[in-house]
UniProtKB/TrEMBL annotation:
Domain of life: Bacteria
GO terms assigned for molecular function: RNA-directed DNA polymerase activity
Reverse transcriptase domain span: 50-302
Keywords: Nucleotidyltransferase, RNA-directed DNA polymerase, Transferase
Name the record gives this protein: Group II intron reverse transcriptase/maturase
UniProt keyword annotation of Transferase present: yes
SUPFAM superfamilies, A to Z: DNA/RNA polymerases (SSF56672)
Pfam families: GIIM, RVT_1
Keyword Transferase attached: yes
Amino acid sequence: MFNLVHDPTTLHVAWQRVVTNQGARSAGSDGLTATMIAEDIGVSWFLNDLREQLKTGTFRAQPVRERKIPKPGGSGKLRRLGIPTIADRVVQAAVKIVLEPIFEADFLPVSYGFRPKRRAHDAIAEIQMFGSQGYRWVLDADIEACFDRIDHTALMGRVRDRIKDKRVLRLVKGFLKAGILSELGDHQETYTGTPQGGILSPVLANVALSVLDEYFHAPWQTGGKMSTNMRRTRRRWKGLPNWRIIRYADDFVVLTNGSKDHLVELREEIHEVLSPMGLVLSEAKTQIVHMSTGFEFLGFHIQWAKKQGTQDTWHVYTFIAPRAIASVKQKIRDLTRATSQQSLKDTVIRLNRITRGWSNYFQHAVAKHTFRHVQHVMWWRIVRWQRVQHRWKWQDVRRWLTDHTGRWHPISADGITLYNLAEVPIRRYRYRGNKIPAPF
């Protein structure tokens, strides 16, 4: 609590993070935005008043504003987000600055989601590495409504194990119990869960889900039954499995060099570990598969397959998952509909943002042919849209996209050139393991 009320820079840093990461225009249940505070109230006065409330203990978390967005994949299901007020976001960001270094010291290396210096590609690289070492049976697990179901009592118990300042604990509990202002304007109490959309929620979710990491990674710790290569080899000689958990937020996989039956037993153990936290596995989305069949994780399709052109050389490959390809193609279609009245320049700018970010994420996969395919789809969508808009014939398209020598050139508008996915280089992402730098 010392940093929150006595260090004047903490709330200022928190304010900058809120404005940068959350945007200045999103409003919570009180209707205030960061832009309104900066223009009408004054940032300094706002932060000083907030610090005084924290000092005197009069600060109270406000209900989060409910907003429902479609889940990816075209399932038609909705994901419920909770948007805190600006004041709550700033305090949550400040509390995160204080708590994150403490819990990072305890978090295990098998967890990658919402942690500094770590990314989804590290989780994929670890799966690829262990898959190449014989861990071929996979429990692909999904926790049902994780953020909505975390038990507050169990979560606060884990927080209290590391945090003794009662004022900080009171703030954390206040954010958990703040309630929800529904889209219809009704106030709903929150008895479980931590709202998606809150700055502090990812840290709290990792605290809750670290029970999984601790249970399944314990054998890998010093002195554990899987802590050395020799011990793992001896277990295999005896017909016993070794396993490895890789978790990214509430998505995780358990790999084993044993059999499918071993994973069935581990799945039951997972139920027992998650139960005290109020969590259960989704029966519909949890599956046991062999890597030769392949599975999807974090947008990638991971599969053990034979190398093309060889007789018996097999590797674990990462491809772009079909749902991720379908998602980006849908975004391209939405921006290039024949009825679109947006200018070509604005459309190219928006397409560039989408495809550049998408390719940066997937450039470590076996994706060259996929990038070319998506580029081909995007090019034709723009050409057809422009033909409808201008009532062009094919000769007009050639006149637009070729120079005086008849050579084709990229689509561009007012100096903005369409990003070329086909030219994105494919780079292998190296497994970093213990080389991931400590963030604090």
